[in-house]
Design goal:
alpha/beta; Rossmann fold; 6 domains; 5-stranded parallel sheet; two-stranded parallel sheet; elongated
Length: about 600
């Protein structure tokens, strides 16, 4: 047992690539380097930058070994058989030098490096200097390094590696060929881990390897470290269950169950599942982030063209496709918005569990609210209308009584639905009887309101009557105030602007409002005007009423300082004071 422990080598070192072809996920960079060797177009300095664990130092070593190899293969790879390759593989090469800039970041260290650069190689053509974490050099060290980096000896080649390119001064960047390494894709990592599993005689599920790759976040070295950890935990068989248990990752099944509960409106099931997740030790913030990612994955599962964006295992992908078939894009987009808002405000919330639970409550009510909003507006039946409509042979007094009885009907919820829909309004006897009118109007006004504005009616003598001839100004003011009061809570600023208005109706049946600034006018025209006009049309049964807004004239007010100013101000209010002053020859004092 001790023998195996002493000879164990972590996978990140054991399976470190030794040729360009074995480098994972950096095909464009390795191809460029091989072509440079093939065409003998070698620069004096290279900069490899990118996230951790993506192969920067590995590519630098392979590149250094290959350009010094005396028997390069037809594929332009190192032979691993010549003296230069053997000395490098055995870590005894005097031609390839690796330095750590984190511990050699002073001017003195750079001076020693410059002195060493002058020495030609013992074996091979080039002396290659690989400087890792080069961004750790001080600014003085960078400046001392400039001249040598720009004009090194013919046998010297520098390969700089860093994870933070923005910390390197521009003068250094301008002297290097820059290669940006990308994060390794999940598919590439899964394939590489599967190859290692096969070499190590380990049975591994694709979904389990996919979880490891996602946890590594694009870094192959991290993926190999997690792989070793899982092997130590589960032995020769890696399953999806053992991976999520060891890495403390929330199972996908929880998200699928929660989404089904949202679709069915089962709030109690949602809250119990969330409580179970918390009892298992998972963080509520990580849960809401994971739920957002789940909804995103459902969204990309709707279209076959975007299904490639789904980075999960085969079995889990089938579950996403199945759930996407029972969801609607509208529901998923609303759910993503709720989760995103919860994520943003999570840290500022004092009761964070309640904050997440409120988001879950909103998600559980999405389908119910949508169904409620899609229900058709109920209308009165013809029999109900006939019971309220005055008959054609009725006398004017009977018509007034019938319509007054209609006026006493309460305003229905259906009326609010029509008002909020923003659709063009049509006035008719049916809609008037459905919505009701104010009970304070007289018989003449009531008769006029009960007529349809789109048609003309005739009186008992056969003469045509214009239903829009008159309108009660008091009724107009009351209806206007009723609308203003309805926006008091939702739009307090606009409420303050509208409540003090003086309502007048011009000959063109237009209401003119005065506002103090253009911002108020824009807000009114965009958000309030249409609703106000529709409201008045419905309430007053007059589709010709419109609203116009003008800007208040800004008059400069004169500030009263002197006694003459005060007296002039009083004269403007009461001209008789001037006669009193002149009659008694009074002074300002």
């Amino acid at each position: 047992m001790n023998y195996f422990m002493e000879n164990f080598i972590v996978s990140a070192r054991k399976y470190r690539p030794v040729t360009f072809d074995t480098v994972v996920g950096q095909t464009s960079i390795t191809t460029t380097l091989k072509n440079a060797i093939k065409n003998n177009h070698l620069a004096q300095a290279y900069l490899f930058c990118g996230p951790r664990g993506v192969g920067k130092t590995t590519c630098a070593r392979i590149f250094a070994k290959t350009i010094n190899c005396s028997n390069i293969t037809p594929q332009f790879e190192a032979c691993n058989e010549c003296e230069s390759c053997k000395s490098f593989n055995e870590s005894r090469s005097y031609c390839i030098h690796e330095l750590d800039a984190a511990s050699n970041n002073s001017v003195e260290d750079i001076r020693l490096l410059i002195d060493k650069v002058r020495i030609p190689p013992q074996i091979g053509k080039y002396s290659i200097y690989i400087i890792d974490e080069v961004h750790m050099l001080s600014s003085q060290a960078f400046n001392a390094f400039l001249k040598t980096l720009e004009e090194p000896p013919k046998h010297a080649i520098f390969v700089l590696a860093t994870t933070e390119k923005y910390k390197i001064i521009p003068t250094i960047l301008s002297r290097c060929q820059i290669f940006d390494f990308n994060r390794i894709s999940i598919d590439d990592m899964v394939q590489y881990l599967a190859q290692i599993s096969q070499k190590e005689s380990i049975e591994s599920e694709p979904d389990a390897l996919n979880i490891i790759a996602q946890k590594a976040d694009g870094a192959m070295r991290d993926a190999l470290s997690i792989f070793d950890q899982i092997v130590s935990f589960s032995g020769d068989q890696i399953t999806y269950k053992t991976v999520i248990e060891n890495l403390n990752i929330l199972d996908y099944d929880y998200y699928f169950k929660l989404t089904n509960a949202f679709l069915n409106g089962h709030l109690s099931e949602v809250l119990l599942l969330f409580n179970e997740i918390l009892m298992d030790g998972f963080d509520a913030h990580n849960f809401i982030v994971g739920l957002s990612k789940h909804f995103r994955d459902v969204l990309v599962s709707f279209d076959p063209e975007t299904i490639k964006l789904l980075e999960v295992g085969v079995k889990i992908k089938e579950k996403y496709l199945q759930q996407a078939s029972v969801c609607t894009p509208g529901f998923i987009i609303e759910a993503l918005s709720i989760c995103n808002t919860c994520d943003i405000n999570y840290k500022s919330s004092r009761n964070q569990r309640l904050h997440v639970e409120l988001a879950l409550v909103k998600l559980s009510q999405l389908i119910a609210e949508k169904k409620k909003s899609e229900e058709p507006v109920k209308t009165q039946s013809e029999s109900e209308i006939s019971n309220v409509l005055p008959r054609k042979t009725s006398s004017p007094s009977n018509v007034t009584e019938s319509v007054k009885e209609k006026d006493s009907l309460p305003v229905s919820k259906e009326k609010k639905a029509v008002f909020n829909s923003g659709k063009p309004l049509t006035t008719s006897i049916k809609s008037i009887l459905k919505e009701g009118a104010s009970s304070g109007s007289d018989a003449k006004t009531t008769k006029t309101d009960s007529l349809t504005p789109d048609k003309e009616d005739k009186d008992d003598e056969g003469e045509r009557v214009d239903p829009l001839s008159n309108i009660d100004l008091n009724q107009l003011v009351n209806r206007y105030n009723e609308f203003v009061e309805s926006i008091r809570l939702d739009r307090p600023r606009m409420y303050n602007s509208l409540q003090n208005q003086t309502i007048q109706l011009t000959d063109e049946r237009k209401i003119q409002l005065i506002m103090s600034n253009s911002a108020q006018i824009d807000d009114f025209n965009k958000n309030i005007k249409t609703d106000l006009v529709n409201f008045l049309n419905i309430k007053l049964n007059d589709s010709s009423i419109s609203v116009n807004v003008i800007l208040e004239e800004q008059q400069e007010k004169k500030i009263i300082y002197t006694a003459e100013d005060k007296f002039q101000h009083l004269i403007n209010k009461n001209p008789e004071l001037l006669k009193l002053k002149q009659q008694f020859n009074l002074d300002f004092e």
